[in-house]
Amino acid sequence: MAGFAGLPLLSLLAPFLLLPLLARVGGQEGWAAVLLGQSAGGLGAVVAGLGWGLVGPVAVARADAAQRREVYARSLASRGVVVAVAMPVCALVAAALSEEGHRWTAAAMSTAMVVGALSPSWFSIGIGRPSAIAVFEILPRLVAIGLSAVLVLTTQQLWTYPALLALATAAGTWAYGRRVVGVRARQVLAVRAWAEVWRTRAASGTVAVGGSYSQTPLLVAGVVVSDVGLLASFGSADRLYRLSLTAVQALTSALQGWVAERPVLPGERTTRRMRAGLALHAALGAAGLVGFSLLGPWLSGLLFTEELAADRAVSVLVGVAFLAVSLNTALGRLVLVPLGATGTVFTSTLVGAVVGLVGMVGAGAVWGTTGVAAGFALSEVAVTGYQAWAVLRRTALEGPARHGPTAESPGSEA
Predict the structure, then answer these.
(1) What is this structure's pTM?
(2) Averaged pLDDT, 293-311
């Protein structure tokens, strides 16, 4: 379990290693272009992933070797056609929002992020081989980052990084399919790709709704803010926030199995482990809020230069969003999903998407990047509030336990 908690997170963290260098070489305009490309491409990757990270591991775990090859072929074919459509669309959006002279960088960065939707990490989780993630995903990315650092320093061309990153991702995916899965090109080409896209619409819709607001703050800021300096500063806060989310993911991954081991007994509303998970996420979220509020401008200036440091007000609002997302991640994955309330989780995501998109655009048009940050924070607070209401409502409807204890005895859990 430690491998599955750590390796996917390392894969997510790897691209952040080069960001301080890109910020220093690119300046305000180049930095903004890189971040706009990441944001547009990240949204495209969420859509192009088709929810396979959500449903794929279970499907693979229950399949034999031949069925696994079939599942992987269907997944790769369907994701591939959506990636092919998403790449030019996202690249055009990123380029249009970027400054003249940096549009190729934004387009290249967006393309590299969309190609990331082909990641086979979910398949490795399903077959129980975390080492494959290290060999075929993390190692190629680290090689690309190392080569990119040399090229960016010597040529001062930021686009060399996303170009190498996209190449490394594509090569790793190809090698993974042949060496780990044993799938061949003819099997992938034989799949009715668009029919498979339609078949996965439920899972992909769930993931896409969440991505529609969580991946768009920087894009909204790029539309409503004309000052590239303010946009670059906002982007620094956004990058710190994305980096900090790996802590939430790590904590949730470490607790999910532990919580699931202790089922809810008849008469119980929640278990002690669920409540412990909530408490730990609340503590992490509170620490993040304090950290962003006090250290956000200083830390972003240290990493990305003083010129690109995050604004204090934006940092505080990002901290509020971090606290809220830490809580709603725990409420969703550690409480509501184990209780069988997956529909409630989807509804809360839909609420967050509506509140977030309306709030970011509306407040951003009036208060600029501070308004966008406020709208985004409000979206995560709305998700948390809806989920908390659902848990409390469930408790109220069930009333006092009739078939078992309402509280666990001290020795009832390991």
Answers:
(1) 0.80
(2) 92
Nearest to 253 by CA among 327, 325, 333, 324: 333
Q: How confident is the model over 174-220, as pLDDT tens digits?
A: 999 888 888 888 888 888 888 888 887 876 777 777 777 778 899 99
Residue 16 pLDDT more than 80? no
Contact 74, 53 (CB under 8 A): no
Q: What is the pLDDT of residue 343?
A: 82
Using CA atoms, how far apart are residues 54 and 32, in angstroms rounded to an integer?
31
**What DSSP element (H or E) covers 338?**
none
Amino acid at 247: A
Task: Look up tokens 């934006």; give the residue.
Answer: 314
Contact 236, 304 (CB under 8 A): yes
Reduced to 3 states (helix: H, G, I; strand: E, B; else coil), residue 272 is: helix
Q: In whole angstroms, what is the distance from residue 234 CA to residue 369 CA? A: 6
Exposure letters 245-284 (e unless 16+ CB within 10 A, then b) = bebbeebbbbbbeebeebebeeebbbbebbeebbebbeeb
**What integer pLDDT is reported at residue 14 of this predicted model?**
65
Cβ-based neighbour number of residue 334 at 10 Å: 27
**CB atoms inside a 10 Å sphere around CB 295:** 14
